[in-house]
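Training component of the fellowship. As part of building independent skills, the fellow (R.M.) carried out the full modelling exercise for a liganded target. The chosen ligand was magnesium ion. The inputs are recorded below so that the supervisory panel can assess the work.
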Amino acid sequence: MTTKPVITIVAPVYNEEPIINEFYRRMSDVMDASGEVWELVLVNDGSFDRSAELMQALHERDPRVRVVSFARNFGHQNAVTAGMDYARGDAVVIIDADLQDPPEVIPQMIEKWREGCDVVYAVRAERKGESWFKRMSAKLFYRLIYRITDVDIPLDTGDFRLMDRRVVDALNVMREHNRFIRGMTSWVGFRQAGISYVRQERYAGQTKYPLRKMLRFALDAITGFSYFPLQVTIYASLVLALIAVLSVPVVAFLRLATGESVFEGQATTLIVVLLMSSFQLFFFFIMGQYIARVYDEVRHRPLYIVSEVWERAPEPAAGSDAVPESSEQPDGASTLT
Ligand code: UDP
Ligand code: MG
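Fellow's submitted model of the complex:
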């Protein structure tokens, strides 16, 4: 039996073998010192190193650690979603397992939450130990998203944040695919506040977000929260129409005045046709991105498949019948959507 936690810490884990024990050590030090009743939900996102083994050992040592293991790699955002589905606390803190987000910031978040904030997000005042390219692309990305989306997603914030149970419940019914959780959290509203922190270097190992995944994530953010790329075609079309209309009298006048054709030769035609085709294909690509995501929604596949859960049953609420010790998950679902 474990006592019902007040704070749930959710951390996604994908091949973080050299980090897990240190993460637990720092997290439990901070949380024990805070005096809160807490639990740690580790989501194993299809790791193929010894991460699962280490997490299971942690659970056996400390029942406050619960482990949800996926059947394969479903991606960071789905792992965070699973953590939120399984969380039992009155507030949920999402944090990366690689110690880039220092657990020492959490007590400050809890304090703000107790003062009445529903979402306390952590703003990266500085990023340490990341490449110039990563820092610049991240900076550009957050500013672009801010400009073109309809919801006010705070600049330079990742998923490191605390959320009240009301916010978590609201997010848990939003089962959209290709998730951009920091955008979804802004979208639900409630009282939100930020605190700033210095993003640290990775404790060990490599980033699990290569360029390909970063681009995909950026497209999820844009398509999930903006129609701007679809609407921008109207401006392109108006500009081209204007050029065409204006060039008719210009070409006619020059022809009459000089007796010569202005745009002579096949090369000009060819170049213009290639340029126009490239524009058109680009907009096809944009439309394709939205259509593929619509297709993802209509198939209604679950966001993740769970293969194993290591946890103890929570203590029954006062007055209710005892919950059997062996029950795996309160709602019995092993394949949550
Ligand atoms: N992660 C995950 N599934 C993935 C990729 C990453 O669960 O497919 C986890 C990873 O273990 C880490 C967190 O998500 O705890 C953030 O990933 P990472 O540190 O590689 O991203 P970065 O900080 O470099 O953007
Ligand atoms: Mg990281």
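The panel noted the following from the submitted structure. The mean pLDDT is 87. Residues 228-298 form one domain.
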